Amino acid sequence: MKTPQPRDENPCRPRHFKPPPCSPAPLDGPAKQSLETSHTRLLITAALFCLAFAVVGLRLVEVAAFKRGDPRLAHRGVATQAVQSRADIVDRNGVLLATTLETPSLYADPKQVIDAHDAARQLVRVLPDLKESEVYAKLTSDKSFIWLKRQMTPRQEYEVNRLGLPGLQFEDEEKRVYPKGNLAAQVVGFVGLDNHGFAGVERGLDGVLRSRGAPLALSLDVRLQFILRQEVAHQVADFNAIGGTGIIMDVRTGEILALASLPDFDPNTPGAASPEALFNRATLGTYEMGSVFKIFNTAIALETHAATMASGYDATNPIRFGGFTIHDDHPQRRWLTVPEIFTYSSNIGSAKMALDIGTDRQRDYLGRLGLLQSPAGFEIKEVGEPLAPSPWRQINTMTIGYGQGLSVSELQFATAVAAVVNGGVLHPATLVKRAAGEPAPGERVLSEQTSVDMRKLLRLVVEQGTGKLANAPGYLVGGKTGTAEKVAGKAYATHSLLSSFLGVFPVNDPRFLVLISIDEPHGNAKSHGYATGGWVAAPAVRQVIERIASLVGIQPVDEDLPEIRRSLLVTSPTPVGRKFAAN
Amino acid sequence: MIRASTILWLAAVILIGYAMFQVKYEVVQQEERLARLSHQIADGREAIRVLNAEWNFLNQPARLNELAKRHLTLVPIGTAQLLAGIEALPMRQAAPPQAGGETAGAAPIKTSAVR
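Above: the input entities. Below: the structure tokens describing the complete assembly.
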């Protein structure tokens, strides 16, 4: 490239001398070309920069000047989602049964504790349930983390903070709280210190509760639960019994609306409960239920046509079989029809009916009714295994006919009775609320006709037989009494009874089942010294039905309406309850 | 000419830089506010849980039963009352119009309460 004339290299050049007009020498050849190339490049680069600045500027104007709706960050939900490690448990109406709250727990770093002796003394002063020697031992141990007291109240936290001791720290821990206390303790269960389920639904559905956020709705209704528990507790106290149980079940779905087992405990402090209180009698305890079992005996006889509503058996004399004698508690000493056998709870008639059914058919049907194996898939794990005779001899067939020799849990019993009365479909019992309109799983075990006949017989027991005290007027209660002598060792203990009553209402179209059992009641003046199911459990069932009917939406009816009379009429050759209606 | 455009660009750069930092600070502030609010929401939720637990504790049926017995002069509805059916309930009696400036809707309620 040819450079233009240097202009100022001569310092002696006079100042007035004007440089020649700037007219660059015309370029040509490769120089011109490369100058143009660089010029083009410069322009492109500048344009790109301009563009970039323009984009940034425009974006800035857009962000700053035109505020658009919601910032996206807020929608990401930073830390707004409550982290909860265990779902709440609620009843079918959403009433809280178990929840998780944050509570402070106190721990120490013994390496930072300056005066362990003084610290222990001061701590025990504000937390009186700690032992000074234990606290001292913990504060002088060589660990760097040791729990001193877990799950404290906010007040205790404040007191400890006020001491201002070094080396003590708090950490928030989750604590399971049961606001309803004892009310449904056996069903809800409780958790250990680390929030692992130990009993009840807390244990049985531990995995479900851990993995879901939404509350788990049980089938229980707190109102019914309260009424049932109160009435059972009343009878237990009144008859000086050792315990009692109650179950209310929806016979159309198998949902358990209330389940009480007394004595019970406060799940907030399960450590203080006795083993008897922790024991769920209604599901874990298995009993020979006694005469209430005649429901199955009669239903199977009708279903297999071993007997009809019009057949009869001679119940004049006790049966002697092997070394056993089977006699009646309410002896009529005559020929009894099937409805009469059921109404007066005749053991002799039932045993003969069982013989007509036969061992194989009896075992087959009891199995189908779910009475020979523990209910699979029930939500709580405290479920008793039924105890069936082995080998199943003829004498067993006879005794099982009236409820001796086969131990089942009351849960199984109630489930099977629900199948007998609801039209013959066995719905597995459940403690979890079924969604509205969701069809309950079920399996047909008896025919519709057998179920209709059984309803009539159950009504007869309450109208004229052993269950009169259960008659809640207007609610068409049907039921069956049961008084079982409890097995003590190898023999039956005559004075330790399990007195039960099973009630169904309204019996012309059963909706609900109420089962109450009182364990070892003692007769009192009010019951004229009797401690049988008809005197102890039946009145409680009546109370429960009268109190819950309006809550579950059952309207009382006039029981003397001809269409209701007709629907429950038993057509039997001999009139029932002519001279023995006085029980 | 060159000077003018340089100044213009410089001004633009300063302006944009200023605005940029302004926006950044605002974002930081908003984030702090978001964190604060999130914390408050979490606290609020925990408070709701505690209050809900307490509400359910206070609403134990046994306690309500006791309180109702002590403070109310009501008893549960009997079967006989239910048996009659809802149709048997008489309609509210229309009270005779009161002298005074009360509206028609409020008058019967007030009189029945006073009586």
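Note for the figure: The first helix of chain B runs from residue 2 to 58.
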